Amino acid sequence: MRKQPVSLLFLAMFCALTAEAKDLGSFGDVWPVREQSFLALIKDRLQGLQDNGQLAALQQQFRDRVEAHTLRPVPVEGLATDTQAHTTWYDPTFVVGQTLADAQGHVFARQGDTLNPLDTLALHTTLYFIDGDDARQVAWMKAQTPPTPTYKVILVNGNIKSAADALSERIWFDQQGVLTKKLGIRYIPAMVRQDGKRLKITSAPMKEAR
Hints:
21% strand, TraW, 33% helix, TraW_N_dom, signal, 6 helices, Conjugal transfer protein TraW
């Protein structure tokens, strides 16, 4: 008896199986998939807010919050006024943590060296720290005669624009109290200027401390 090739046997089996297959129909309700995309949902919500006028109101609230935070940053904590003047000193001397070199590879400071920036770079600017919400300190600032060619007014609290208008000066703000903490300032208003190889910090007395 002649054997059939294996491929013909598989073909015969496939034909037999398909011949026995029947269409049993569909059971239960069938619906097409209708899932709204996330972007379409957001678009519909925004359109709804725009139609009823709420979107414009939300946008204005956001602009107001940004402007308010920009003009009035978070106040620096831990500062006070006093009825007496205070004088402290800040020595900027530090120990070099690692050897430093310029772009050409010339070493200008070696690890372990003690350096004072005021030895090579003088501070020709007087720094004033005030609370812009305190009318007494604003009046004190107006009466100042800086001992250096330039000076900067730095707020620790208050509205930057209002202070700039009141003093007719460009105003800075000690964000997160970086400068006051570094210099160890505790009382305001305060004036900081170079005195020899140190910085002299003098706070002015106010009639009533707070």
